[in-house]
Amino acid sequence: MDKNQEIQREFKVEGLQLRTNRDGTKSRTIEGYAILFNSPSVNMYEDEREVIREIIAPSAVSRELLDNSDIVMTMFHDNKIILARSKNGNGTLSYDIDKRGVSFSFEAPNTIDGDKAVELVSRGDIDGCSFAFRTRYWDEDYVTCRSETIDGKIVSTYEIRKIKSLHDFTLTPNPAYPETECS
Asked: Which residues pair with 169 in a beta bridge?
């Protein structure tokens, strides 16, 4: 791989919530966290000698990055299943940054895909989120690596300190951040 080639990564995060209207009916608003800060991913690679994980530092995401991105909310990272979108800070997908990470909210569209998303989230079949981004793994301003030996294995944790671009938030049944809770 060319050392200057940008790498796109996808992460999964738990923490979806489907609101209920005051009259007890299902709301079509789906919200959760697409990115969690300082939360280790599951093992992205593991063999008998090595484990690789990543964490996202709070410095990796800024309001400017979000507002200058074209973020599509999908299911399963499938750009054919568009549920919401924020293009340069405007659109049907809203987001915010807090000390925990990047939260989002959207009203599921009145489409087959929107109905499917509402049903799968309300049943708990989909209870997590993921996101796709680009960064520069070879540039220490963007990514640093810390390694330690635990139980005879080298555990390398890549800290994403800066994200170059964000591309999607997605609903997923397999979140990769086990320390988070679903609500």
From this structure: 73, 131
Side-chain half-sphere of 176: how many Cα atoms within 13 Å?
21
Other residues' Cβ atoms within 10 Å of the Cβ of residue 100: 15
d(CA 178, CA 13): 8
> Residue 25 pairs with which residues in a beta bridge?
none
pLDDT at residue number 180: 41
End-to-end CA distance of the chain, in Å? Answer: 41
* Burial class of residue 7, CB neighbours in 10 A (0-12, 13-18, 19+): middle
- For residue 139 the two structure tokens come to 């540039």
Unique residue bearing structure tokens 């484990």 = 51
For residues 179 and 13, the answer to whether their CB atoms sit within 8 Å is: no
Tell me which residue of 118, 104, 117, 124 sits closest to 35, measured CA to CA.
104
SS3 60: helix
Which tens digit of pLDDT belongs to each residue from 60-85? 999 999 999 999 999 998 999 999 99
Query: What secondary structure does DSSP assign to 16-58, as a single string?
Result: -EEEE-TTSPEEEEEEEEEEETT-PPSPSEE-SSEEEEEEE-G
